[in-house]
Every structure is written in C-alpha cells, then in structure tokens.
Amino acid sequence: MRIFITGADGFIGQHMVERLKDKHELEFLTEDLRDHAKVAMQISTFDPEIIVHLAARTEVEDSFYEQITFSEINYVGTVNLIETAAKLPNLKNFVFASTMEVYGWQPISDLIRDGKEEGIIAFNESTPPNPNAPYAVAKYGCEKYLEYAHRSYGLPFTAIRQTNAYGRKDNDFFVTEQIITQMLKNPNEINLGYGEPYRNFIHIDDLLDAWETVITNPDKCQGEIFCIGPDNAIKIKDYVTMIADKLGWNGHVNWNTKPARPGEIYLLNSTNHKITTRLGWTPKVELSEGLDRTIATWKEIFEKELPYNQDRKFSKGK
C-alpha cells in the first residue's frame, strides 16, 4: 500500500518506518503541519491509501506551560491533515495517534488522590472522556473532528488511544526512561514528581504490533476508536521500586520535586478488550520483561559513555 506517515522521526515513527519500509511504499511529511497549502500539495501528490498520523507534541507536562503551541500543532495541524485527507480519492484509512490522556478526570481519580481507592478499574471506549491537560484537550478535539469528517464526508479513520509507551533509547524525558537513567547516573538519590498516581504501560514492540494490525486491516476498523491497554496499572511509587530492584539501586527518592501540575490525574488505565476482539491483537510483552529490555538498552548506552549532545535528548543528572 501507499502509506503517508507524519512524525516519522519520532519515537514510534522511527520504529514504524523500519517495520513498514520493505512491505509498502512510504512517503513522509516534510512540511509544517500548520501550513495547510503545502501539506495539501504534498499529500495530494502522493495520493496515499493509508495516512498514519503520529506527528505531535507529546510531552504532557510541557503542555501546561506551552498551551498555544500544543494546540496549534496537535489540533490545528491535524485539522489541516483531515481536510486534505477527506478529498483523497483512494484513501482507505486515516490512522490517528490519540491518547489515554483523553479520559482525564474520572470520579475514581479523586478517590485515589484522597487515599480511598477500592480497586483499580480499566477504562474502555465507552468511558466518558474528560481531558484535563492542554495536550489531552487537543487530542480529544481531533477525535471529534475525525468523527465529524467521517459523518459528513465519509472519511475513513481509526483513532488509537495509546497507553504510556516505553522502550526508548535516545530520550529520557518520559517516566520509565527518566527513572532508569537517573538511577544509573545517581547511586545516592534521584528527583521525581508525584508518586501516588497509577499508570499503565505498553512496550514499544507491542505498540508497533497494534499499529501494524490496524494499518493492514482498514476494512475492519474504519470509524472506530480503540484503547490498547494493557490493563496493568501500577502506582508510580511501586513502579520506581520495581525498577530499583531490577537495578539493585538503594538510593533515596526525593518526591514532589517538580511544580504541581494543574489538575493532576491519579488514574489512567485501559483495557485492550475491543481491539483484541475485533482484530485479534493482544499485548505480549509483560511489564517485567519490557523493563528488563529497556534497562539493558540504557546500561549498554551508559557503558559506551556516549556524550550528552544535541543528537541525544538526555537530561542532565540531578
């Protein structure tokens, strides 16, 4: 198939290209998503059968401080893409990277915050979204715009509400890699934010399998929104302990060292039941195994003593 990919240089995009390059004809977005005319020209010239839309600002924490930029790139940029896609004659599906963050505030989140949780639940596609971060608001807006275009123009689309992915090897901004790299660099103490929220996690290999399954089965998932799970929510404090045990790290964690996030969400967890039933995909990498792989990757990187430079997005040790 002819597949047009945005965000091909991102975490998921780089791996996606490796998966698809020998099986399909690929084209990558080279224009600024916010420039409708140039985006429309590039896509129309290629005339894709599938659009894989990964490009976005994804650092949820930063969206609280760069609201306009996140909205322009993540929402307006996606609208530009959708409006062009709706005019393509041979499009079979527009596959959009949404996020579990769209669930935002739920009543159980307040119970967890107040220490009154009575069991952790998993959100599904019927759980009412209540996005509670600029990043999440923009992503949910994109979902609604896709639904509008589907009803009005017949635009085929699938939205994937992604879980926290891990398995990076060139970026330690996100929680799993940040915990691992801080522990590797600092034997005595590390600095982290909140420890009480629950999150679920998916390894990059499982995430790529889910994407490829959706991409190659457009007729089975048009007009659908999928959660991908897995239902493996763990409290961040317990996650840190799990990683520390694997590393043999016995230092001290300085919690709450980051500014309080407005409207912090204390539970994000989801089930993959619908996508498993519809497409047969299921996550295979258990959290413990995935962490072992990620830790091994970062140990190898550190052993090679790679310099901290602009080509690698390492944060400074604290």
Protein model, in words:
There is one protein chain. The protein has 318 residues and is of the alpha/beta class. The chain has helices at 11-20, 36-46, 60-63, 67-85, 107-113, 134-153, 175-185, 204-215, 218-221, 236-247, 273-279, 287-303, and strands at 2-6, 25-28, 50-53, 93-99, 157-162, 164-166, 189-191, 198-199, 201-203, 224-227, 234-235, 252-254, 267-268. The strands form four sheets. It has a six-stranded parallel β-sheet, with helices on both faces. Strands 11-8-13 form a three-stranded mixed β-sheet. Helix 1 links the parallel strand 1 and strand 2. The longest helix is centred in the middle third of the chain and has 20 residues, at 134-153. It starts with a strand and ends in a 15-residue tail after the last helix. The model is unreliable at 308-318 (pLDDT under 50).
Which features does this protein show?
single chain, 318 residues, alpha/beta, Rossmann fold
Oligomer: single chain
Overall CATH class = Alpha Beta
Order of neighbouring strands in the sheet with most strands: 2-1-3-4-5-10
| Topology, number of strands | 13
Measured as a percent range, the helix fraction is 40-55%
Q: Classify the fold: give the CATH topology.
A: Rossmann fold
Looking at the overall shape, the CATH architecture is 3-Layer(aba) Sandwich
Helix and strand pattern:
EHEHEHHEHHEEHEEEHHEEHEEHH
